[in-house]
Request: fold
Amino acid sequence: MPSIAVLLLSLAASSSVLVGGANDLPGVPTVSTIQRIIAGVPHHERAVNSSSTTDQKTLTAEDILPLLPRNLSQFLPAINQIRTQHCREQTEEFLFGLHNLTSWAVKMFDSAGKVPSGVLSGSTYSLGNFDECVNVVAPVAGGHFQGKYCLARILLTGMRQLNSVEQQPSSVWQDIKDAEERRAIPKDTIHLAFCIPSACSGGDLQEFLTSTMQAANSLSTFRVDVEVEESMCQVKKEMELDDKDIAFISVMAFFLLLLSISSVYDFITTVDIKEKGSTPPSVVREALLAFSVPRNMKKLVKYTPTEDTIDCIFGIKFYAMLLILIGHCSLFRSGGPVLNADFFQKAQMKFENSLLFNNQLFVDTFLLVSGFLFCYHLFKELDKRKSINVPVLYIFRFIRLSPAYIVVIAFYASVFYKLDSGPFWEARVGLERERCLESWWTNVLYINNYVKTESVCMFQSWYIAVDTHLFLLAPLIIIPLHRRPFVGQALLMVLMISSIVIPFVVTYVQSLDPLLMFYSREIVDISTNYTFVTAYIKTHMRATPYFCGILLGYILIRFQASGQKLSKTMLFCGWAIGSLCAISALFSVTAFYSPNYQYSSLDAAIFAAWDKVGWCVGSSWLIFACCTNNGGPLHRLLTWRPVVPLSRLTYCAYLVNGIIELHGAGTQRTPAYLSILDYAKASLSHAVLTFSCALLLCLAFDSPIHALQTALLKRERRKNSGNAEIKENGSTLPS
Reply:
């Protein structure tokens, strides 16, 4: 449609002159003021000479920037609409500098975005040059001002009256209009970068552009609206630490000192022991050594095969976490600015890409493993002891998980925001900081998946709350299973059936999606996604894998106690059924991304209920086969030596991965070109960064707390306490 191209070119022209590139900068007050600029009158002399400028020549674009001629007269009425006086004054200085080709003014002009090419393929972002804009410092009379980077949304809202050409199916307007569908690429919104003086706000820019577009809209049947959110406008700021930042840095400095002292003490005591022999155990000594970096590093990499043959869990945790990290990378990369959004649309319909689009099953794997390990180890403890102090078990879990978790939350709420900048930094990291400041206490209490879900701190933290809720419930199932098997089995079956029925009913009644759908327009901010908030993060919607894990642990315990062996027929049937269930659960999601699929509440409800069951059947058989020495090559892969220390980092990796993803999204300077190779490179780099940061977090907080708990449990055991000891690979979280 010619009118679209003409209008967008007109929009680009307007941006290039007044604001340094993408559109007009709010700030030129009157025609006479602009005429004085053309005459070369400095800003501080304009008020005095205002009466003598009426005979100046009419404004032409050549007078301002001969290399890029533009007709600015059409924008003069809009200039008068800008209300902020200081913004107008700085804009005058900008135009005067641009007229004289002053370096800083031309940089503002140069740094802004232009109308992007490839809009009909989904390339709707023109981000300009963020750093060039914010690094501008304009020396003017009476001081200076900075460049402010703003990202405006140009909304192609529709046609007032379609002519015969535009009504044709082949019309370009049909391509833009089709973007209203959920699965379609959004083509009706263009994001353009502006570089404006720092005194101007996003509201000033929006007012000016809206006024400008009114004139453009009156000349065409095509309508354009403009939105400029203040969170999308940024200036360069010097790092200023507030009380929260200082407190966080002080705590980190204290722990760094503690780690250093403990490591030195460990070295000294190790030398003394070699020379003088072993020393009697001491609580103070063990507490201090718990923070020794060398000692914790040795524990991390140490691997001694266990007697109970459940070491395959190491590999399952690591590979599941790796796939989760790939899913997170895909989520943020596809929800950000891209050059070829049609790649994402085509990828959704390919069978093999279900690993990305049904990624929630790998999170369910951790819930399955959590239930399995807790049941398995608690049964072992109940076999050894007459009773278990359940409240103490809850307290130990809280102490075990909370320190590293709280440190990451505090990092989100304090210094993270001060460490970098970028076009989306305020909208990504700044928004996350506000959410954490508002709802951090729900995370600490592990209720953040039900309370204040409109401001979730750490998008992935819902899992920790879900796992905690199910952990609190688990002893009430496992203890009856051990003492009164019939009662425990009945209770477990009721809970399992309920956990299947509830997602079915909720999805059917509320007409929800069968799973969290990866539509690019809906995953820009995953924490506001309706399905994510309503169903995805809720404990009652995610409980099935955990109960399946408890059942698996109970079956394995009883099978090992019986001394039976699996026949070849049973093995064949187990592998066949397990593989079929897992494959169908993982890859059947492709049907919901088909362009021919028509939504059905019944279809969605069935999938929401049974997809997890199928995956749990396949995963449970894999664990059962490996734990009974029937895993073959898969067991060797899952117990591969390098996998063991990495699997111990999965909890910390899960905590810090959000930092890696948010930082990447917030600092993205240019649209990405999506491809399989691009996803592979990005996922690999994010995984390496995530596990590197996880190692630091683990050595500083997670491993010391675990060492302290182990020392206390040993002390309690010597006093014949009845508290359960959850072993290293019995952690109920990805740790």
